[in-house]
Design goal:
With about 200 residues, this protein is an all-alpha fold. The chain has two domains: about 90 residues, Rna Polymerase Sigma Factor, Chain: A (Orthogonal Bundle), CATH 1.10.1740.10; about 100 residues, Arc Repressor Mutant, subunit A (Orthogonal Bundle), CATH 1.10.10.10. About 65% of the residues lie in helices and about 0% in strands. The chain is built from eight helices and two strands, in the order ααααββαααα. Strand 1 and strand 2 form a beta hairpin. Helix 1 crosses helix 2, helix 2 packs across helix 3 and helix 2 crosses helix 4. The longest helix has 26 residues. The protein is elongated and about 55 Å long.
């Protein structure tokens, strides 16, 4: 059972807050959830857009999406579900923006990845997902050391020290493999684009 209205709902679990919101449309419950995870939403949005104001706008958009979607889904792990929801909202906006010109493609599979821009032309209907596929293809073409470090550092979010511990490579080597790997990925992707042109 839920605590009475005069008790502090800040102590409710995520699932209790969701159940309360579904049952009574209690905005206080949603407010607690949003406050609890707003930093996570903002962090994901910032990785996609690299612009603080645009990231803040996306946080509000995700909040509006929560109002509708929380009642539609049977959620077991709210944090994981929210993470996916936020990434999907960011991707949807990126798809819209790609038609305006150049999109900063800093993500692969929803994670921060590249630090350069890939050109999108107004008449280019290629989806962002296809560019993700190019990145994954090019990762597979890297030398083993570069591929291993790139995957650990970007896709698994390991720190430099963790990559050193896992691979046994020296720190200087790890940084070199990541830097050279990124450069090789850029060249590979550009070559794939030229082949399609």
């Amino acid at each position: 059972m839920f605590l009475r209205r005069n008790r502090n709902i800040d102590k409710f679990s995520d699932l209790e807050l969701i159940a309360l919101y579904k049952k009574s449309s209690d905005n206080d419950a949603l407010s607690v959830l949003f406050k609890r995870y707003s930093h996570l939403i903002y962090g994901v949005c910032l990785k996609y857009f690299k612009d603080r104001e645009q990231a803040k706008d996306m946080v509000m958009q995700v909040c509006e999406k929560l109002l509708k979607d929380l009642k539609k889904h049977d959620i077991k792990n709210f944090k994981s579900w929210l993470h996916v929801l936020t990434k999907n909202e960011c991707l949807m906006l990126l798809r819209k923006e790609k038609k305006k010109g150049e999109v900063n493609l800093d993500v692969i599979n929803g994670e921060a990845f590249m630090e350069y821009q890939l050109p999108y032309h107004h008449n280019n209907e290629e989806s962002i997902e296809e560019d993700f596929a190019k990145l994954e293809t090019c990762i597979g073409k890297l030398r083993d050391e570069q591929q291993q470090c790139i995957k650990l550092f970007y896709l698994e979010r390991k720190s430099y020290e963790e990559v050193v511990s896992i691979t046994g490579f020296e720190l200087k080597k790890v940084k070199s493999y990541i830097q050279n790997g990124r450069r090789n990925l850029k060249i590979c992707i550009q070559n794939l684009r030229e082949q399609e042109a």
